[in-house]
Each structure stands twice: as C-alpha cells, then as structure tokens.
Amino acid sequence: MSEPKNLPAIPDPGLEEHEHRFTDVDEAAADRAYRRIVGMLAAVPVLVVAFLVVYFGVPKEAQLVLFGANLQMQTVLLGLTGGLATLLIGIAAIAWARSLMSDEEIVGDRHGAASPPEARQRVLADLETGIEASGIRRRKLIGSGMAGALGLIAVPALITLADLGPWPTAALRKETIEKTIWAEGIRLVNDVNYLPLKASELVVGQLVNAVPANLEELHGAEFQTAKSKAAIIVVRMDPNSIKIPESRQDWQVDGILCYSKICTHVGCPISLWEQQTHHLLCPCHQSTFDLGNSGVVVFGPAARSLPQLPITTDAEGYLVARSDFTVPVGPSYFERDSSVDFKEGDR
After folding, report:
1. Are 186 and 81 a contacting pair, CB within 8 Å?
2. Residue 190 half-sphere exposure, CB side, CA atoms within 13 Å?
3. DSSP single-letter state for residue 7
4. Who has the most CB within 10 Å: 103, 264, 282, 334?
5. Cα 2 vs. chain centroid, distance in angstroms?
6. Predicted structure pTM score
7. CB-side neighbour CA atoms (13 Å) of 325
C-alpha cells in the first residue's frame, strides 16, 4: 500500500453572506404572516369544540358513504377535526420559526467538556436572546395562542380515553369480568361435541375439557367472551389420594372435581395433566397446580390457586354446576381481591 499523502488543510469557509427574508425587510409581510399564524392557532379551539360535538352528538352507528365505501361517520369526523387541529399547531409553529423568529446564523465555538463557572449565566443569556429572537414579546398573541392551542389539543385525547371502556367499578366488575354463564343446574358438556358428562362414565385419571351447556345458545363475540371465562377441566381422581377441605366436601362427586381451564398467571388455557401426581401444567410459563389439593400452586409464576367450580349431579346422574365460580377466574388485575382465593391450609 502506498503511504498516505499529506493533503492541504481545508480553509475555514466562514459564514456565507446573510440573505434577508421577505418578512425581515417588509413589515407589512411580517404582519400578514403574524395574522396567518394567529388565525391558525385561533382555529384550534374551534376544531376542539367541533371534536367534542362530534364525539357526544354523532351516533356511533351513523354511516357515511364516501367514494362508494361505507364509513363510520363519527370516526371520520373525529379524525378530521382532531387531526386538523394538530396539523394547524404544527404548521403555525413552522411558520412562526421560518417567518418571524430571528434568522441570524451564529458560530458556536467548541469548548472543553467541563462547564466553566459562568456557564449558568451564559445559558440564561442565551435563553434571553432566544426569547428576544422569537419576537414573542412584540407579538404576544402567538405565545398565548400556542400555549392555548397546545393545552386544548389535549382535550380530544383525554375525551377519547373513555372509549377504552367503562370505569371498572366494583358493581360493573361483578357483572362482567367477575361473572361467568355458569349457574345452578347448568350441565357440564364436552367442549367438542357438547355431550353431557355422566359421573358414572368418568374413570379415575381421566381429564375432560368441558364448557357449560348454555354456551351453545350464544354466537359471535358473545360466544367467544363467555367461553374464554367459562372453559373448565373435569378430572376424576381416587378420593383416597387427594385432599378435600371441609368447606369443599360438597363441591365434588366421588373424586370428580372441576376447575377453571384459565391459568391464573396470564390467562393461558391449561390441559397438560399428570395423572400420577395430580398436577396440571400450564404450557406458557410452566405454572403447576395441584388438582388433588384444591388447585394450589406448586410451581411457577402463578400466584393464585386455580378456581374450582362447585359441582353435583342431577336426577339423571349428569354433572351439573352448583353455582358460578366463587372467585373471579383468569389472571389478576389491580382491583381484584385476592384474599378470597383458596390457600394451602384453608379449611
């Protein structure tokens, strides 16, 4: 390889000759730019009010036909009003910087990493220079208009938070996420063919994935929501090899017990059954529950026992529920009362 040649140093080009903008030399042009910026900022509150009117006044089911497509009118109008308000703030800020703020080029000398003692004074002086260069003291409506626009543009965002769902009050939780379609007398049926489960036909060591018989009456999203909470597993174990607390003696039928199929960690469906140990393993994060001991956690990240469904038999010998689950199924959430869950040693 050839030795690198010593190239001549590049001369400092310095600052190019400054070219004044039209608004710098023509006061009338600057005033027109000022009025345009203020006008854009003044339109933001109007658009925010329009956003609120659309949100509360336009029915969600209203349709808008546009270019042959059926669109949800409320969604389109919310996007137009909220989006245009945000766009105007951005355009006003850019126009302010390009037309009215100081247009001077400056050179910043490099300095060491350590700040000199007078750094704070220098920063304050630069801040004062920037404020003066922005022209905000001479044209005060821009500053107040920008502050008002930025404050008001947060209103649509806050209002739309209501669409994340209703406020999770205790009464609402009790009627929704803490309730399933299980009820007294509902038969347990196979989740594939919906055939009812007869106690006498289950053998020791068998596990059956099941659902409530009334699930078949539901359709669409209602069906999926109900199944995600009501899915169960039914197991039969030797009554002499399991521990049944006094409070749950009538929750089982000759060693047949029923548990939620939903893991209490993050809600994965469980069905990996170890007959010899009576353990049920979650395939997602290996939480392990002892079905021979009221579903308590014996391993893994799950912090709560698997909810157990009280069951009995009807006049024909088929398994039926005594009631709904006595505790909410599925993973934990902030408002949930975990003190009601079964723990090792409970009677």
Report:
1. no
2. 13
3. P
4. 264
5. 62
6. 0.59
7. 28
Burial class (CB in 10 A: 0-12, 13-18, 19+), 58: middle
DSSP-derived secondary structure letter, 266: T
Q: Which amino acid is at 44?
A: V
In this structure, which amino acid lies at residue 27?
E
- 320: DSSP letter: E
Radius of gyration in angstroms for the set of CA atoms belonging to the chain, rounded to a whole number: 35
Taking only the tens place, the pLDDT of each residue in 299-332 is: 999 999 999 999 999 999 999 999 999 999 999 8
What's the rounded Cα separation, in Å, for the pair 248 and 318?
Answer: 19
According to DSSP H, which parts of the chain are helical? 22-25, 27-57, 73-99, 119-134, 140-152, 154-160, 170-175, 220-230
- Do residues 130 and 106 make contact, with C-beta atoms less than 8 angstroms apart? no
Its CATH class, for the domain covering 172-340, is mainly beta
Residues 6 or more apart in contact with residue 59 via CB below 8 angstroms:
74
Report d(CA 271, CA 59) in Å as an integer.
44
Token duo for residue 26: 């023509």
Delimit the domains of the chain by residue range: 22-104+123-164, 172-340
Q: Report whether 302 contacts 289 (CB < 8 A).
A: yes
Which of 192, 234, 194 minimizes the C-alpha distance to 214? 194
Residue 7, classified by CB atoms within 10 Å of its CB into exposed (0-12), middle (13-18) or buried (19+), is exposed
**pLDDT tens-digit map of 187-240:** 999 999 999 999 999 999 999 999 999 999 999 999 999 999 999 999 999 999
